[in-house]
Structure formats: structure tokens, C-alpha cells
Amino acid sequence: MIKPISTALATSLFALAALPAAAQDANLCGGAGANGQWLGGDEASSDISTTDSYIEQMALVLLRNEYVGLFTVSQDGDYRIEAQGRGGGDTVLDVRDASGEIVASDDDSGGDAASRAETYLTAGTYCASMRSFDGSPLTAFVRAARIDQEPLTAGFAAPSGGGDGECDLSTAQPLVLGQPVSNPWSTQNVYSLRIDTPMAVSLTAENETADPILTLFDPSGNWLAENDDFDGLNSRIDMANPLPAGEYCVAVDLYGDESVPITVTAKEYDAAEIQRNLYARGDASPPLDGTYPVEPLGELATRLRQDVNVNGDATWYSFEVYEGGLVLVEAIAQGQGDPVLVMYDDLGRQVGYNDDYDGSLNSLLTVRVQPGTYLVAVRQLDNGTTGFVRMLFERYVPARP
Known about the structure:
Blueprint: H1 7-10, E1 15-16, E2 37-38, E3 55-61, E4 67-73, E5 77-85, E6 91-97, E7 102-106, E8 115-121, E9 124-132, E10 138-146, E11 173-175, E12 181-184, E13 190-195, E14 199-206, E15 212-217, E16 223-228, E17 235-243, E18 246-254, E19 261-268, H2 271-281, E20 295-299, E21 303-310, E22 315-321, E23 325-333, E24 339-345, E25 350-354, E26 363-369, E27 372-380, E28 387-396
Parallel strand pairs: 1-3, 2-4, 11-13, 20-22
Antiparallel strand pairs: 3-10, 4-9, 5-8, 5-10, 6-7, 6-9, 12-19, 13-18, 14-17, 14-19, 15-16, 15-18, 21-28, 22-27, 23-26, 23-28, 24-25, 24-27
């Protein structure tokens, strides 16, 4: 069944990720919003606290690009952000605040490979970044709304574990901040977390074979947050706003193997750690002030080769370009490995991404550049793989008449 197209969509049937609706602040959402489109058609119509109905656009995302939809919140409250692919497309959704921090992330919680994030947002501007899970071209709807408004997706489907979406503290194992616990889902899947003073917290559930799902409930049993597939198939919930004192319930469900141990950790929210994790995944570019390791390659004059032993955490390089042209960056696995490449300009805007090229597991970026500094990250697609990768950097200049 084809979903109805909103009024905002009627004025622009396809919102291409590379074409901004209006000039944006280059640093909005850590650079992710520079080419974003207002979901309501313009900024004034994109405040989901006051709109009569949901706001929505349909986006065509090509290759390894992403669509970024912009919206604002004028009143603190609970909101729903969703993405649903057409023709079986598998969407991945990240919601960033104006500083670029991810406040919600989801892959499949909308059901049928759609994404759905229901979260508490404070007043401000937000970016909803939508991409295809496997990098293939994708046409999808992106919708932002209040919780009381019509949803785009069917919602969270019952996983293979058969969880009922509730949290019974009578069977919960207590969590201690900073102390991981590991249990198979079949023997323990409910945990309690006591907070004595207001505190911002982070929760993780890790084991990709289990493909865990995390859900957090407040002391009254009300749903607070949910996540599936934050880092690979692992899950994470970041409650950046301090939670009131009380006993919280943490439910773990799964899509995978019920017999393997799932490591559950609760710890105090650390904004600096969140940022470092973004750099390690290549989801944001690090600063060039020496606070995060970036190897400077100097001027990219013609051709440069670099070998690196890399795992699931990105290794970063920077290089200088003094005149416009074309830059080619290639990552070639030397034996085992599946390298991923991502490239940013010096303002933190992603200008290139590639995983598999020309039927192989190697990666290739071809990016038109202007004079400036560029950063390139290379990592293994599989967090459990470590292997040598040969990097090739080449610069081409336009032909002169």
C-alpha cells in the first residue's frame, strides 16, 4: 500500500541528499545538516511541537549517500522520528541535535526493515539522517511527529525471543554502574538500575550473534527509550538528560541466538566518549588539534601509497589540496578484510563514502575537491576483523585549454 504524500512533499517529490532546500549553517548538527532539507518545506513549518499533523518528505538516496531532514522542537517532550523504505528498502536512522550529538538511532524498530525512534527531545534544531543499511540506492519516507500523531511505521515487531514489551522487576538482576554483566537471553533478560541522584546514563547490550534489543522503562513502568543496531548489531541507549532518582527497568530482547551471552552495561553518560565513538566509527570527523590521532600526509601532489593494519575502529589521515580537481582514494585488502572508506572536508561535512566497489570487497572514493584540508577514515566493516589494507591517494587536475 502506498503511503499518502504530505503537503510538504507535494512541492518536491524527491528530496535529493545533495541538494539543500535552503542555505544552512555549515556546522549544523556537526556538519551533517549543511545540505539538509526542512521536513516541513521551510523552517517555519518544521516545528513539530506546533504542527497540526506530522511533517514528512520522500527522499531518493543514491549509492552510499544519505538524506538529512531538518526539524525543530519548541517544547520539550516525547517525539517520534521514522524512516520507511519503499520496495523492501532497509533504512537506518540517526537523529542528531544541533551540536552533532546522536540523541537517537535505529535500524529495524519500525518493523519490516523500517526505522522508528521514539525519544524525549528538548527545544532546539535536529537533523534526521537516513541511509540504506547495505549502501544500495533507496527511496524512503522520513517523518517527524509528536507521539500523539499518526505513525508512519507499524512499530516494533515481536522479535524471535518473544518478549512482551514489559519489564518485571521481580525477576530483574541489579546493574551496578560501570560493571558489565553477561548472561544468555534464555536465562536472564531483565535488569534493574537504581539511581540515587539525578544522572545521565548510557546502556549497552553487546553480542552480535544475539542481535540484542534494549528497552528502558522508568520507575513507574513507562517506556523511555529503545534501540536496536546502534553499533553493528549491538544496541545502545544514551540518556543525555539526567534521569530522576529511582529504580529503572532494563529489558533485553533479541533477534538472534538465545543461548549466547549478552553483555549488558550501565554507566554514567560521557559526552566525550560519545564523540570519540563517532570518530572511531567514522560517523564524524575528528578535530585537527592533536586531541584525536590523525596522521597528516601533507600536500597531496600526485600519488601516495600507505599501508595500514586496521580493525573495526577507523584509522584517520589528513591531506592538503592547494587547487581544485579530483581526488581518488582506494582501500585494497591485503588478504582478509572488507575495508570501508569515508571522507570529510575541514568543516566536518561528509563528501564521500564507499564500502564495496566493482564487485569486490575493496573500496574506492572519487571526490571533486576545492583547495583545503580533507580527512579520510579507513576501517574494517566487521568489528571483529583485523587486517592489512593498502591505501592509494591520487590527485587529478582539470585539463587546461
